[in-house]
């Protein structure tokens, strides 16, 4: 048995334990617009749905070593809206590329050669190639330790399909990616 005192970690990394035991995590590939109008795109796996009436998602965005707010959080706080693009197997290269810390004036859509598509209810663009997306408005922002917690109300959703076989979802599994497939219950 492996035992970890998560309040007084010694000889282990609590992040590693947490991300190896809370698995798999969905990935929010978040697109936003800066106040100056530059699109931004980045993945976040500390993410989940937390209410369904009304539908609400939560994304946790770390401030990092220099305690600097990430572009995604800054844009959401300024514009109060964002889109979560669904991550399928065919988009992994672009997801990884968009996680590089580019300066705010650089659009990850351009870096990743991804076409922008207009969203229905928010101004932030969505990833045209994503098989599904959730359009969100900022409901609540909390600062917890060195994290920006973003509660977004889902105001619109689009999907090519709601079937796992067609969506080919990918999750985060201990610093790697994983396929998510249905298992049959008998
Ligand atoms: C699959 C994946 C999941 C990630 N999850 C998170 C997360 O949950 N929270 C976070 O702060 N950063 C996360 N990151 C790192 C951000 O994507 C990265 O810091 C990015 O540069 C932020 O971009 P921005 O400054 O444009 O917002 C993740 C990276 C990858 C590849």
Percent of residues in beta strands = 35-45%
Largest sheet: 7 strands, antiparallel
Mean pLDDT metric:
96
The radius of gyration is 17 Å
Q: Would you tell me the structural class of the helices and strands?
A: alpha+beta
Estimate the helix proportion, in percent: 10-25%
Elements, N to C (H/E) = HEEEEEHEHHEEEEHEE
Distance between the ends: 32 Å
Low-confidence stretches: none
Structural shape? globular
The ligands found in this model are: flavin mononucleotide
Quaternary status of these chains? single chain
Descriptive account of the structure:
- The chain is built from five helices and twelve strands.
- The protein has 186 residues and is α+β, with helices and mostly antiparallel strands.
- It has helices at 14-21, 71-79, 92-97, 108-111, 164-167; strands at residues 25-26, 28-33, 39-44, 47-52, 55-62, 81-85, 116-117, 126-127, 132-144, 147-159, 170-173, 176-179.
- The protein has a seven-stranded antiparallel sheet with strand order 3-2-6-9-10-5-4, covered by helices on one side. The chain has a three-stranded antiparallel sheet with strand order 1-11-12, with no helix packed on it.
- The chain has a single domain, classed as Roll (Pnp Oxidase, Chain A).
- It binds flavin mononucleotide.
């Amino acid at each position: 048995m492996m035992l970890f005192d998560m309040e007084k970690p010694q000889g282990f990394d609590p992040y590693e334990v947490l991300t190896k035991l809370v698995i798999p995590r969905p990935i929010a590939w978040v697109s936003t617009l800066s106040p100056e109008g530059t699109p931004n795109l980045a993945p976040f796996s500390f993410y989940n749905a937390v209410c369904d009436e009304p539908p609400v998602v939560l994304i946790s965005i770390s401030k990092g070593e220099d305690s600097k707010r990430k572009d995604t959080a800054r844009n959401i706080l300024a514009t109060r809206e964002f889109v979560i693009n669904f991550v399928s197997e065919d988009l992994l290269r672009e997801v990884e590329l968009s996680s590089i810390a580019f300066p705010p004036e650089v659009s990850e859509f351009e870096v990743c050669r991804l076409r922008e598509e207009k969203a229905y209810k928010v101004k932030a663009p969505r990833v045209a190639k994503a098989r599904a997306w959730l359009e969100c408005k900022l409901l609540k922002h909390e600062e917890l330790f060195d994290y920006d917690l973003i509660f977004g109300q889902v105001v619109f959703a689009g999907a090519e399909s709601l079937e796992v076989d067609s969506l080919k979802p990918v999750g985060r599994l201990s610093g790697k990616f994983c396929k998510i497939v249905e298992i049959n219950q008998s």
